[in-house]
Amino acid sequence: MRFVIVTGMSGGGKRTALKMLEDTGFYCVDNLPVPLIEKFVELVDTPGSEIKKVALGLDVRADQPFGEVHRILENLKKIGYKYEVLFMDASERVLLKRYKESRRLHPLALEGRVEDGVRKEREILKSMKESSDYVIDTSNLLTRELKEEINRIFVMNEEYNSLMVTILSFGFKNGIPADSDLVFDVRFLPNPYYIDELKPQTGNDKAVQDYVMNFPEAEEFLSKLEDMIHFLIPLYIKEGKYQLVIGIGCTGGKHRSVTLANELYKHMKNKGNYGLKIYHRDVKQGV
Fold first, then answer.
1. Are 173 and 273 part of one and the same domain?
2. What is the pTM of this model?
């Protein structure tokens, strides 16, 4: 029997992950009282049971002794049960935004501020996150991308990439993305904006790509940037980082930054133990 425990921060996408696991054939149970976990595992793992894949959702609740989870899981391990822990997470900024948009109450801040509940919950779940088999940060993930990640881990059984790298193009005139970990300025390259036939196009168009990458400085910058990022990624993974956002900016975010972001994505794709995606924040600005 494959037994997966799905837990994490409230608002991090736990229920969405459970629904996706259910769609792939897992028998899913959510919000089971902590003291019943052992009995539940015994019942679904009886000889002759047709249930082969189980996912159990566990929340932090004010009325549940979540601290007992670690003791129960250790007991299950001693008895011989194997399990995997999927931890769903998101940044504090994103969690607060999701709560404000949904107008839900945080389970640990029923009479207080959501911010206090999020911080308290993160402290309670700190050791659980550190011991998890998989951590998925949904701060920048689309539902489709989360589904692909769930399928990759639990259906195709591919190697788990603990770090998700996002290459993000942007325009400085619209502000530096707040979630960027690394920011690179490519305004040193000649600007296609001032060439009439290239101005209405973007870095997603071949004519602009050819123009920008025809400059030796662009190729050299790309080579040095890729070397540095591949040097940093193992260090970030070692330190337990789960999200890396690489911002590449030009003036308007339509030509040079988009071209370099696309080139970097092509160079980094399928070259390491990390997930990779690309997003052009300002490419449609003014269109």
1. yes
2. 0.69
